[in-house]
Design brief:
Transferase(Phosphotransferase), domain 1, 2 domains, 260 residues, four-stranded mixed beta sheet, 9 helices, three-stranded antiparallel beta sheet, globular, alpha+beta
């Protein structure tokens, strides 16, 4: 397995997903291994509740996982677009404290940023899925669920929405034209029910359940995939201004007149 570096252009593309190329101050870092540990998760929630903007553990757990979804985006984007594998083991990934427009918006620092070139896409795609989901996100989700008493549906939809964004929206960017066929193939594969076990001890694919048909929402004047669950962003400081455009509490409440 040959090890190669990310190019300057590739690093720049990953920065849009909050990938950090320079190591932040130690006080700003939280290791993924720490968050997967129950004691570490509780310590994180206590320390960051003020920065995230809520004292409610359900809200904190949901928003942590919604922000954390970008670790999966970084890994899968690198695989699909660059044909390169990043090391996403919990020991290698660090959440870095950050803020954008008044919102807690952490970055991701990979201690080892070298990649390996993908040779056998079919077998390596399965390995990447296991590394990202079964071995990293699943244990993190389980720990967050216990800390915040939050449901599986909310946690996995928080991950799914950003992966759908990459493979359904960003895929049409001109600069990704060379990788479009690869991205389409990877996305179809990612949603297969037969891949359920790659995400954890599941009988059904936890991402596929959220890949529903989009619908026209008149109040947004747009065709959207309305969320099945609420991520509780509206419960942060700032309230209603932070609601997602696809929030089921607003889109579905007006369904009779506004959705078709």
């Amino acid at each position: 397995m040959s090890r190669v570096s990310l190019t300057a252009e590739e690093k720049e593309m990953l920065r849009s997903f909050r990938f950090l190329t320079e190591r932040p101050e130690e006080c700003e870092l939280i290791s993924a291994s720490q968050l997967i540990n129950g004691v570490g998760m509780e310590a994180f929630i206590q320390k960051y509740s003020g920065k995230i903007g809520s004292e409610d553990k359900i809200v904190l757990s949901s928003l942590l996982l919604k922000r954390y979804a970008f670790a999966a985006v970084i890994s899968l984007f690198s695989f699909s677009v660059f044909n390169k594998r990043l090391n996403v083991s919990p020991d290698n990934v660090f959440l870095a404290d950050g803020e954008k427009n008044g919102l807690w918006m952490p970055g991701f620092y990979f201690q080892d940023q070298a990649t390996s070139e993908v040779i056998d896409r079919e077998s390596e795609r399965e390995e990447v899925a296991k590394e990202v989901f079964r071995d990293h996100l699943f244990p993190l989700i389980e720990t967050a669920k216990k800390a915040g008493n939050i449901s599986d549906l909310i946690t996995w939809e928080n991950v799914a929405i950003y992966l759908f964004w990459v493979y359904e929206v960003l895929i049409h960017q001109e600069e990704l034209g060379h990788a479009r066929e690869r991205m389409e193939e990877d996305f179809r594969w990612l949603l297969k029910e037969s891949n359920a076990a790659l995400f954890g001890p599941y009988q059904k694919n936890p991402l596929a359940r959220f890949h529903s048909e989009k619908q026209f929402v008149a109040e947004q004047d747009s065709v959207l995939r309305v969320r099945k669950t609420c991520c509780f962003s509206y419960k942060l400081r700032g309230g209603e201004a932070l609601r997602c455009s696809t929030c089921p509490q607003t889109c579905n409440v007006k369904q009779r007149k506004g959705v078709r």
